[in-house]
Amino acid sequence: MSLKVKWALGTAIGALLIFALLTFVLFQSFTSDLLKREQTSVNQSLVSVERRLSDSRADELTSSHVRSLVRYSDGLADKSTDDQSAKGIINGLSISDLSIAVYNLNGKLVFSTDHAPSTDKIVDHKKIQTVKKGSHKNIVGTMPVTSSRSDHPKIGYVRVTSSLTGYYQVTHRLFLISVLVLVLVVIASGLLGYVLSYFLLRPIDEIHDTLTAIRDDPTDNQRVPKMHRRDELSDLGEMFNEMLDRMQRYIEQQSQFVEDVSHELRTPVAIIQGHMEMLNRWGKDDPKVLSESLDASLKETKRMQDLVQEMLDLSRAEQVEINFRDEKTDVGEVVHQVFNNFQMIHPDFAFTLDDDLKEPTVAKIYRDHLEQILIILCDNAVKYSTERKEIHLSLSRNLNQVEIGVQDFGEGISQDNMDKVFNRFYRVDKARSRKKGGNGLGLSIAKRLIEGYRGSIALESSAGYGSLFKVTFPVIQENIKSLDD
After folding, report:
1. Which residues have C-beta within 8 Å of that of residue 144, sequence separation ≥ 6?
2. Measured between alpha carbons, how far is residue 421 from residues 164, 203, 388, 438, 441 in Å?
3. Domain 321-484 falls in which CATH fold?
4. Treating both helix axes as pointing N-terminal to C-terminal, what angle do 81-92 and 3-53 enclose, rounded to 10 degrees?
5. What pLDDT was estimated at residue 457?
6. Spatial separation of the C-alpha atoms in residues 303 and 306, rounded to whole Å
7. How many whole angstroms separate alpha carbon 291 and alpha carbon 175?
8. In CATH, what class is 232-317?
9. Fold topology of 3-173
10. Against a cut of 0.90, is the pTM above it?
11. Do the first three CATH levels of 3-173 and 232-317 match, i.e. the same topology?
12. What average pLDDT does the chain have?
């Protein structure tokens, strides 16, 4: 079952439940109010008929006497409004839902507008109740008839019965209308839900088509079309495109990585193989050739060892979020340490440090990794400063970040190469870089480490004027003394 159909069914069922509950409440409220009106009507009719019959001068109601009172109408012109109402009710009983029955003191029926049975139930006060008759209900009102003109105050009983025919007709029509409206609401809500899901979930179909294309060919450039709306699915489409772009970059980088590693390893392996073959053929008998071949082979072996180590460092740099997420380091302390070490290692260089930190500043980073990042940046600065041997380090902080700057005044990097210097095995000048050592993995390792700790690195450079690397890390708002606890 597709998501559109599920959405339509869910909308229809939800509308059914909500509307059914609302209809039930309204139906019960309306029928209850209608039933109360019927009870009020029975009560008013009962009182009016009782008043009309109370005009009797007899000690007990008889059939002939009641019939004369019921048929009497000329003397009602000067009666009260209630008596006129009584006349109207009695005259209209034959065409209404109400029926009247009059009983004497013994419970014998003396008058009825309908076929009413005799009753032994005698009441001393007015009583209105609902009586079930078959599958329907009737409202029955009973009260004694008293006479102010007789020595006996109680002269009989009167019963008014409402068959609720009009009530059941109204409720039946109301029920049919409610069912019809409920069916229409369910159908309309289902169709509306399906139409809405078709338009609102269309990006999911586009994402599905894109996924299918990428599954068949991971290098396919198909992307989710841009959606001109701002909602969760639009954001999902953009994030999905970004993920595909990143995945494709990883595929390209992986392919380039394999090519670069094979190329980097091919040369030292070929050199070592050449020297070994030469020694195997004739060079082992010549001490000078033997010594040169061994020295060259050891250098190439050391170079391969460094390459393998840098590749391991790069692999570890991609997992710092998992293995070192709880580490904390005083940034200023590590920068001063690296600064002093490089001053000692390179006495021919002029190192300067501008420290604007007024207090210990803690960042969420493993100490050895921060030191490794600074060593990579300072090594590059020394390596490419051939004429003006001057390195400038800086430390500063804003509200929630600490910034480390490493600046050299050497060869610099052109604008075309600035975006590529952080790629694996990339060298600005491959020939000169190979002579200076390194495999082109240092900056890539540094960037991976920095991004793993939620930091950032930026480069400002110009060919012939040197380069400035700026590294920023989020600051932890806590006292440095907590590191010693």
Report:
1. 123, 124, 125, 126, 154, 156, 157
2. 93, 38, 22, 13, 9
3. Heat Shock Protein 90 (3.30.565)
4. 110
5. 92
6. 5
7. 108
8. mainly alpha
9. Beta-Lactamase (3.30.450)
10. no
11. no
12. 78
